[in-house]
Write a structure and sequence with these properties.
Number of domains of chain B: 2
Structural class of chain A: alpha+beta
Strand content of chain B: 5-15%
CATH class of the largest domain in chain B: Alpha Beta
Distance between the termini of chain A: 68 Å
Number of helices of chain A: 17
Shape of chain A: globular
CATH topology of the largest domain in chain B: Ubiquitin-like (UB roll)
Distance between the termini of chain B: 42 Å
Helix content of chain B: 25-40%
Shape of chain B: globular
CATH architecture of the largest domain in chain B: Roll
Oligomer: heterodimer
Number of strands of chain A: 30
Order of helices and strands of chain B: EEHEEEHHHH
Strand order of the largest sheet of chain A: 12-13-10-20-17-18-19
CATH superfamily of the largest domain in chain B: Beta-grasp domain
Structural class of chain B: alpha+beta
Largest interface: A-B, 61 and 58 residues
Chain lengths: 731, 150
Amino acid sequence: MNHMPKMPQLNRRAFVIGTATAGAGLALGLDLPFGGPTVVRAADGSPEVNVWVVIRPDDTVVIRIARSEMGQGTLTGLAQLVAEELECDWSKVTTEYPTPGQSVARKRPWGDFSTGGSRGIRSSQDYVRKGGATARMMLVQAAANEWKVPASECTAANSVITHTPSGKTTTYGKVVEAAAKLSPPTETEVKLKDPKDWKIIGKSVKRLDTVDKTTGKMIYGADVKLPGMLNAAIKACPVFGGKLKSYDEAKIMDMKGVRKVVRVNDRAVAVVADTWWHAKTALDALPIVWDEGENAKVSSESIARWLAEGLDNAQPAFVGNQNGDAKAAIAGAVRKVEAVYNYPYQNHAAMEPLNATALYTPDKCEVWTGTQNGEAAFAAVLETSGLPADKCEVHKLILGGGFGRRGMTDYVRQAVAIAKQMPGTPIKLLWSREEDMQQGTYHPVTQCKLTGAFDKDDNLTALHVRISGQSILYTVRPAALVNGMDPAAFQGLAPTGDWAIGYGFPNLLVEHAMRNPHVPPGFWRGVNVNQNAIYLECFMDELAHSVGQDPVEFRRKFMAKHPKHLAVLDAVAEKIGWDTPAPKGVFRGICQHMGYGSYVAGAAEISVTDGNKIKVHRIVASTDPGYVVNPAQVERQIAGSFVYGLSALFYGNCTVKDGRIEESNFDTYNSMRIAEMPKVEAVMVPSGGFWGGVGEPTICVAAPAVLNAYFAATGKRIRSVPLKDQDISFA
Amino acid sequence: MANLTINGKAFDLDVEPDTPLLWAIRENAGLTGTKYGCGIAQCGACTVHIDGVAMRSCTLPVSEAVGKRITTIEGLAAANGTLHKVQEAWVANDVPQCGYCQTGMIMAVAALLEEKAKPTDQDIDEAITNICRCGTFQQVREAIHAAANA
């Protein structure tokens, strides 16, 4: 006898209520005064089986996705998770976003909307699969009720329900009305499949959002058009912390198309015009006076000096990982190796500049935007508009890149602040690339002093990692600090967990001297593993070479208790052919790290001409994210993360002068082109039993693999990013 | 005012002659498949065909496009909706990630294939200089070869 849940009860007072919403939104769940579950309907009248699944009479399956699609493939991956348990016909699957306003009205049935930290799949996989399983059980039960047979005699596959003894069949679309009226099984009654039985999870199904991206039909935030809409261009004080003092709007009011000049907040001014080009042209001509304040004295050099002071052991620091007594071991060492590294500010530079469209009336405020966090954007709309939750809404659009920047809500607040000054007129605020580059929330700046101690037999006895620099959480999420310490500063260097260091050293001390310059930091794809992997993995390479040992063999000595870290390192070593000679003139570098719950390793083959022109011939990257939902998409995330990571290594530097960022566009903040990028050979070794992230982890092994290869090729150790500032370029 | 021929259709647009073609296409003609990425002809998201040649429309004044055949991503597929072979290859190879740069990338590749039916990797390296921050280059290269052999 199969273990089947007890029969869900048909509610006596199941009321069908549907509220058609504008566009492709969802129906609102309305609480009837006399209570009881209700059938909630999508805009086209199709019933929800539950919050995750709507089925149309033609058997189309609409799967709700709360997380945001920004290229990483989460829309398709999350749909695969639901579809696996739903046992639906994949060819009939489509997706839609619930809105944050609907989520609030329904008491957050979709959970967290936040899409960052490579969490999209790993932190929602359990409840979205249960959502699919629950819907399947209700559909099967509805068929069983109709046939007056036990549900345990029925099976479901490909959206078809079969009564095994009689051979009778029906489809999801035919029973969905009845299924939607059933009470769902309780959570304990819902059993998920054993991973070995997965049919859709683990398959390289095609993305669900591709065709419109090749025809120009996909509507991004920047493409939104509303009746009567005007366009806004904005300029905020280029010195962070500075204020808007005054502007002379009379100088531009007669320029073509200009409708209004708006003080957005205490630091930004916007021009509203019929077209964005008119708005931008007028903004460029607008005389603006800034109150730049004290920060105008700050430069990259002054920041670097301040951070360098934090490398001094006498300065206070937070301890993030410690075993034994590293300081004592170093003091008593036969030989020491010491090096100082640094990592600069970097801009996300998503291809689609930041934008949001807002329509404000005293009764309602709606926003259309690409956001990595629908709920945070919603909260920003509430705060800025001053309206209550039931009078606000955020319509999420596909993002033209996010990389962490679109988890912030500054641009949403600005759009609402402008729209609030022009009630009834939809305002599309689009940042220029220059504004996007110079009003970023930047990859934080740090320096790191590393000290290794050896005994007389060349055994490493201690490692001291002392980071000095900026905390993201201090500015972005101060409530997440732990007694003042930023735990995220130790990503990839932590004792255990999702960010665990992959080595066991006899004595270890990892510290962070927090120093927060005025430049706003933000989560930037990979976040703190980017610099921490360079610091640790390039220094491990230095330590290995200092005792004349092979960098892989040297690492292995400390990895006995870190088999998963070792497995990915071994996987790239094997694939790149570490134990065999490289082709003539080609040199290799290798590294491993951990982030976002996934184990990653990378290896590069490069050649160097004239000592400073690098050609990257091969990249091998390995990841163990526990489970791989869509291998083709994971492969693309790995390859893409190397483009992002190597762009950062070669080009990424936002320099500070007079308190502002100097770089303004892709001519001064460059990004890799196809000619510079070799094929990335991805080696996926999912070992199961845990769920790690995919979008970010592999980015951090890009730079150290190439830097270590550069040392192998030239004997020169590069400890400062980016390479362009070391006079090193692509060949 | 400017009379432009976009995707075979005549447009009479209320724009100044020095307006970048990109903005005339997006805001006046209402064709938003052509994207704004940088405004200084660095990234290629705004690539369109002018008389069959790939051009970056963000720095090209409207006045220079008058009397010429302008093709945007919306005009690349056949009139009956059949996708261009580059679009087909893009779909078959699941090339786009965020997709924002891809319409410009596709226009650049379509023009390359007009010029060189079977481009080598080196031809691709020289001709395709569009920025893609998601890093789709590996799939872009595969799809170009696939389209060339279609």
